[in-house]
């Protein structure tokens, strides 16, 4: 990420913020002096709220202009708008969900001293407690006619302009500001909560059990990815941050948890772009006595239910206004067949690396690192087929050498029963008919270890404990993994840095 050059406008903004902070610090000192006999400190430990702003809006949102309720309520919120006139001050108080209510501070109600204190002490950004009658102003705005008030917490730094769009860097680096000023940021946080709740509800309906597996692991595995490495002083051992929970969830399946899933944090020491983050949230699930077709059916149901939870239907509207249909039955296409059709060349698991390299050279496709037959096929598929996918699509049946944890295809030699789900042009989820034969699994691990020895940092290592678990009998099963951040991307149309509340940035 490149540094953004400082402009004169930036410098002026910094100078203004410095001056405002000095003024606000002086007001804080006054609050401390006023509270010297009330327990000390600038702010009360708590304030006696009786209602929330959203609750009052739900209860009294239909008042006509000028209506009075006779109901006294006490709320707190952040000041996001303020207008002081001679005998009457107005402020908009905002709750965490963006709901607002107007506070009206009148000389006739609070008196000279409290009106003057309000004008002198209250700034934009402050958290303020108010108590008074709920009414509708003459302009029809839901309001509280303030009888008592207090500054619950003072903002020492000014808020950004509430009516100017924050740039992406500010939104990502200062998410707290983003949440204060932008509806979309608040909606995305709530959408994520709705998605996770929906996922759990769908799993519960299918009798799945949610578990937790280790984040710190002696042996990393379950995906082809470069791990983060750390050191345990207690064990004097090198440990790895989890790249996937797969091998532990499969251990749980060996132990008899036939329907198991986990929503977890994973860490991969890789590049960051619009669809990748070094730290991300992931869902993995395993369904015993099923296969990659059964787990594909479940994955489609999970995603469609999550979309409905957020958008009210499987037709979603992205942040840019695009309408995208996640409904219906999704297409399932063969990787080799779709690549052959798009390239005009018949390609099979038996096609030589030289032929694949020649096809790539003819179309300007770069050679993948540590190229094998499977890596060439996947690279060519991404070039020829991926850009043309619009609807949600399961891409079925992958090369065996790129999928060391997947069962051989029951009919096609050199292929494994694996799918990748593409939505919105990116890979959203992957699913397998899981490899359950420990003898074949050991052979696959040995092949991966050979690649690792040759310098492939994403290759897997031999995991003897996992193999020992398999030797106790692993049931046939379908398994899937899906990025939660990417699921939010598919539903909202946002980039990955927007769907992660606090993404890692340089």
From TrEMBL:
Pfam families: tRNA-synt_2 (PF00152), tRNA_anti-codon (PF01336). Its EC number is 6.1.1.6. It catalyses: tRNA(Lys) + L-lysine + ATP = L-lysyl-tRNA(Lys) + AMP + diphosphate. Residues 192-503 form the Aminoacyl-transfer RNA synthetases class-II family profile domain. Its cofactor is Mg(2+). SUPFAM superfamilies: Class II aaRS and biotin synthetases, Nucleic acid-binding proteins. Mg(2+) 1 binds at residues 420, 427. Keywords: Aminoacyl-tRNA synthetase, ATP-binding, Cytoplasm, Ligase, Magnesium, Metal-binding, Nucleotide-binding, Protein biosynthesis. InterPro entries: Aa-tRNA-synt_II (IPR004364), aa-tRNA-synth_II (IPR006195), aa-tRNA-synth_II/BPL/LPL (IPR045864), Lys-tRNA-ligase_II (IPR002313), Lys-tRNA-ligase_II_N (IPR044136), Lys-tRNA-synth_II_C (IPR018149), NA-bd_OB-fold (IPR012340), NA-bd_OB_tRNA (IPR004365). It comes from the Bacteria. The keyword Repressor does not apply. The keyword Transferase does not apply. GO terms for molecular function: ligase activity. Mg(2+) 2 binds at residue 427. It is found in: Cytoplasm. NCBIfam families: lysS_bact, PRK00484.1. This is Lysine--tRNA ligase. It comes from Microbacterium kribbense.
């Amino acid at each position: 990420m490149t540094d953004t050059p400082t402009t004169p406008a930036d410098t002026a903004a910094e100078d203004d913020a410095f001056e405002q902070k000095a003024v606000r610090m002086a007001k804080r000192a006054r609050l401390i002096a006023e509270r010297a006999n009330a327990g000390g400190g600038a702010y009360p430990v708590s304030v006696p709220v009786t209602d929330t702003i959203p609750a009052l809006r739900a209860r009294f949102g239909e008042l006509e202009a000028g209506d009075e309720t006779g109901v006294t309520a006490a709320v707190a919120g952040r000041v996001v708008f303020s207008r002081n006139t001679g005998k009457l001050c107005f402020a908009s108080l905002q709750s965490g969900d963006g709901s607002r209510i107007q506070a009206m501070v009148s000389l006739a109600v609070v008196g000279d001293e409290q009106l003057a204190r309000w004008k002198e002490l209250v700034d934009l950004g402050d958290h303020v407690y108010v108590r008074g009658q709920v009414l509708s102003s003459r302009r029809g705005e839901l309001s509280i006619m303030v009888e008592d008030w207090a500054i619950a917490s003072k903002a020492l730094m000014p808020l950004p302009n509430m009516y100017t769009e924050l740039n992406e860097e500010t939104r990502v680096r200062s998410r707290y500001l983003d949440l204060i000023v932008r509806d979309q940021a608040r909606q995305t946080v709530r959408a994520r909560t709705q998605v996770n709740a929906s996922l759990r509800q769908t799993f519960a309906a299918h009798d799945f059990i949610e578990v937790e597996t280790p984040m710190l692991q002696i042996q990393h595995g379950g995906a082809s990815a470069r791990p983060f490495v750390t050191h345990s002083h207690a064990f004097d051992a090198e440990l790895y941050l989890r790249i996937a929970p797969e091998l532990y969830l499969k251990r749980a399946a060996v132990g008899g948890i036939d329907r198991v899933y986990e929503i977890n944090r994973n860490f991969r020491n890789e590049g960051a772009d619009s669809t990748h983050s070094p730290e991300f949230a992931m869902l993995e699930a395993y369904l015993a006595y099923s296969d990659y077709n059964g787990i594909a059916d479940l994955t489609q149901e999970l995603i469609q239910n999550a979309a409905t939870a957020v958008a009210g239907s499987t037709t979603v509207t992205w942040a840019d206004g695009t309408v995208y249909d996640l409904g219906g039955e999704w297409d399932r296409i063969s990787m080799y067949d779709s690549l052959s059709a798009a390239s005009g060349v018949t390609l099979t698991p038996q096609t030589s690396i030289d032929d694949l390299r020649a096809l790539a050279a003819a179309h300007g496709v770069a050679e993948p690192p540590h190229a094998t037959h499977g890596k060439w096929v996947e690279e060519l598929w991404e070039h020829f087929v991926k850009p043309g996918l619009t609807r949600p699509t399961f891409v079925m049946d992958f090369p065996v050498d790129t999928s060391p944890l997947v069962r051989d295809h029951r009919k096609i030699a050199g292929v494994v029963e694996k799918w990748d789900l593409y939505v919105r042009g990116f890979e959203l989820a992957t699913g397998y008919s899981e490899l359950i034969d420990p003898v074949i699994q050991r052979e696959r691990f040995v092949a991966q270890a050979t690649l690792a020895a040759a310098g492939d940092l994403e290759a897997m290592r031999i995991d003897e404990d996992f193999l020992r678990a398999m030797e106790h009998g692993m049931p046939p099963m379908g398994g899937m993994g899906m990025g939660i951040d990417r699921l939010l991307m598919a539903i909202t149309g946002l980039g990955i840095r927007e769907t992660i509340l606090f993404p890692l940035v340089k």
